[in-house]
Design brief:
This protein is mainly alpha-helical. Helices cover 44% and strands 0% of the residues. The radius of gyration is 21 Å and the shape is elongated.
């Protein structure tokens, strides 16, 4: 449990503080993994979380599907682009 006041916390250089919700079971398992690996959490948890996110991004980048939202006056839900729209976007991006 963290007993520091927010004004007493020091930021790690190159890191930002986030406020996200994570499944409790997953978070506890991740913390246990880090503690077993390093013998402590302080100074290691943020680094390991960053590395886990980087690894996830490297392994899943190809799964991104562009979403085309045509300009409109009202609010519309994003939709998957048609094959023709994908070709058009690829031409614009010179892919």
């Amino acid at each position: 449990m963290n007993h520091y006041k927010s004004s007493e916390r020091t930021a790690m250089k190159g890191y930002i503080r986030t406020g996200i919700y994570v499944e409790e079971r997953v978070w506890e398992e991740f913390k246990q993994f880090v503690k077993e690996k390093y013998g402590k959490l302080k100074g290691t948890l943020a680094k390991e979380l960053s590395e886990a996110i980087k690894e996830y991004l490297e392994n899943h980048r190809g799964e991104i599907v562009p979403v085309f939202v045509p300009p409109s006056k009202g609010k519309r839900k994003p939709r998957k682009p048609s094959p023709r729209e994908i070709d058009k976007m690829a031409d614009l991006l010179e892919i």
